[in-house]
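Read as amino acids, tokens; as here:

___
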Amino acid sequence: MDFTDEDKEEDIRHHEPMLYYSILSGFKAIKKECTISRNDMEDVLDECLFDWIEMFPKFFPENIQKKVEGNRQQRRLTAKQKK
């Protein structure tokens, strides 16, 4: 099955709202007002598409759980080293 440019664009457009709400959450976490509008997402995604694709899987539960477990192990090691 061959994908047209329109098919590829449609696939990428699904990433725009996910990127926007991720950015919005980041601004909220640092208690600042978001300076990027939802309408800007196509341009933002054009600029950072490869970075976004690389980090996108990190948002899924199995990766979050690995990070939490890694942080717990690091805290235990740090606590042991302080003794």
Notes: Residues 19 and 47 are 12 Å apart (CA to CA). The chain has a mean pLDDT of 78. The chain has one domain: 5-82.
